[in-house]
Amino acid sequence: MTEKYDVIVIGAGPAGYVAAIRCAQLGLKTACIEKWQNAKGEGVNGGTCLNVGCIPSKALLDSSYKYHEAKSELSVHGISTTSVKIDVKAMIERKTKIVEQLTGGIAGLLKSNGVTSLFGTGKLLSGKEVELTDHKGGKQILAADNVIIATGSQPINIPVAPIDGKIILDSTGALELTAVPKRLGVIGAGVIGLELGSVWNRLGSKVVLLEAMTDFLSIMDQQIAKESLKIFTKQGLDIRLGCRVTGSDVKTKEVVVTYQNSDGEEVKETFDKLIVCVGRRPFTEGLLAPDCGVNLDERGFIFVNEKCATNAPGVWAVGDVVRGPMLAHKGSEEGIMVAERIAGQKTQMNYDIVPNVIYTHPEIASVGKTEEQLKQAGEPYNIGVFPFVASGRALAANDSEGMVKLIAHAETDRILGCHIVGPSAADLVQQVAIAMEFGSSAEDIGMTVFAHPTLSESVHEAALAVNGHAIHIPNRKKRK
Ligand code: FAD
Ligand code: AMP
């Protein structure tokens, strides 16, 4: 007999498991199908984010930063450290334990909320039926009133540098290195390339990032991007812009990479390991039966409207598999919106306020519009900038590189964007995201009382600077 659910979710990453939990909370009979298997062949929830993405990368970023601090930063505080060593195996094992703890936690959350967790591969058939193929090949047909597709994304492979899992790695392989490579090449100086490059740079690799674009972090606010480039270069990351990789030749223990530099010359460089971080693509392989009625867009994403409805009635799609930034929290919020809409609520998601973070040190974080976007749209704006070097707390922590940049509408003073490179940028930008969600003006933040001494005061000062009222830096615009 066909088992019938109110909702079947395909994929248990941050988009899918969150959607499933919210559906169950709303009283819907919900199943969540996941095909991921761990090294022991067991089914695991959590998707890219928990298994090979956000969480393991942050675990390695934190470990490697502690090593770097112990080795190079503590002496300024009068703390001497000698013979600081890194045990890469122990670092990777710690990361793996965190992943196991969190993925196990998702299984517990699904269970306690009453979601039926099923392991295997889901395929959408016509009429909102789903074929489930378990890990032993057994098949069953399930049916639902609503199906939520949350099958995520996978790394893009480029033919000029095919992944061999030994010398040429994707982001997943780069989280499993057991020794520090002497010479590490990274193709792509985007979010993932910068994070992974930073991990191994701190541990002693000589890291070269080859980036095809001539602008660094081209979609970010360019003042913040330029400041970040200076900071990373000082840290020893060798970021080569305008360099397109055209080939790779794997030898026994190294790879010779060929690229065209910004002058159009062909250059060869040898690395012990090469990480390919050129972006991710939506994952829909084997997912859609030809008659299921779901369309893809021209870039291979599942086509959805702003409410995440596909063109097949009762079939929804959320997360990396649909348009928009590939971010865990974006997918989770879409999952909640869809669950609540299925339950008859009118929930909408505010796509204009989705924070974006690069977890380097210092972090880079942004929300809302960049100065370049506002210029292009012809919107009048005012800017307030506060450098961390003027923050007492940042100086006390010996962590004073970077700045907060706040942008507000020139006529209404409504906050339009905030861009930060600096200590705890991710947490600071979130304060502005909340303010933006409430339609706040720069003056509203300026009138809020901030605790002293905190890094948050830098947000306060940037907001005051928008209208020429900053206290702890000279104002570019002087106003009464
Ligand atoms: P996924 O997490 O990819 O989950 C989809 C799930 O669906 C997978 O578990 C997959 O096995 C399963 N699946 C696919 N097809 C089927 C099928 N037919 N049947 C059953 N199951 C199926 N984002 C951030 O916001 N912050 C970060 O710091 C961050 N760091 C990252 C670092 C790295 C190295 C990487 C690679 C990514 C990072 N991301 C980060 C991106 C983030 O991981 C993704 O945006 C997020 O995981 C997308 O969630 P999702 O649920 O849409 O897809
Ligand atoms: P992101 O989309 O943030 O993950 O960044 C991926 C980066 O890889 C982008 O900035 C691309 O410009 C870059 N990229 C893609 N293909 C190549 C290539 N062949 N050589 C160098 N950089 C590349």
Provide a compact summary of the structure.
This protein is of the alpha/beta class and 480 residues long. Helices cover 31% and strands 24% of the residues.
Keywords:
single chain; alpha/beta; FAD/NAD(P)-binding domain; seven-stranded mixed β-sheet; 13 helices; binds flavin-adenine dinucleotide; binds adenosine monophosphate
Task: Give an overview in words.
This protein is an alpha/beta fold. The protein has three domains: 215 residues, FAD/NAD(P)-binding domain; 111 residues, 3-Layer(bba) Sandwich (FAD/NAD(P)-binding domain); 111 residues, FAD/NAD-linked reductase, C-terminal dimerisation domain (Enolase-like, domain 1, 2-Layer Sandwich), CATH 3.30.390.30. Helix content is 31%, strand content 24%. The protein has 13 helices and 22 strands. The strands form five sheets. Strands 1, 2, 3, 4, 5, 6 and 17 form a seven-stranded mixed β-sheet that branches. A five-stranded parallel β-sheet has the order 8-15-9-10-11. Helix 1 runs parallel beside helix 8, helix 3 packs antiparallel against helix 4 and helix 3 runs parallel beside helix 6. It is globular and about 75 Å long. The model has no long low-confidence stretch (mean pLDDT 97).
